[in-house]
Design brief:
This protein has one domain. Helices cover about 75% and strands about 0% of the residues. The protein contains three helices and no strands. Keywords: Membrane, Transmembrane, Transmembrane helix.
Length: about 80
């Protein structure tokens, strides 16, 4: 009986650790895309499409989640306005 309890606790901790690592990796990848947007400026999801269509295409391309896609599109638009 104790072995089952230890296995459940171990698996729960493993899932929590993997979830945190996944969140950290997505956040770092989002920041990487924001910092290195030169290769993505020529892609079609920034030119000629609405904001929401750009988010959908970016999310589908990189699978980073809609919130991170919103952050990327907003920051890229802000960088374009500054230049």
């Amino acid at each position: 009986m104790n072995y089952q309890f230890y296995i459940i606790i171990t698996l729960s901790l493993l899932v929590l650790i993997l979830f945190c690592k996944n969140f950290i990796l997505r956040k770092k990848f989002t920041q990487y895309i924001i910092d290195n947007n030169k290769s993505d400026k020529n892609n079609s999801f920034l030119h000629g499409l609405s904001f929401y269509e750009s988010v959908k295409i970016l999310n589908k391309k990189y699978r980073i989640g809609k919130i991170n896609a919103y952050v990327i599109i907003n920051s890229l638009n802000d960088k374009d306005v500054e230049q």
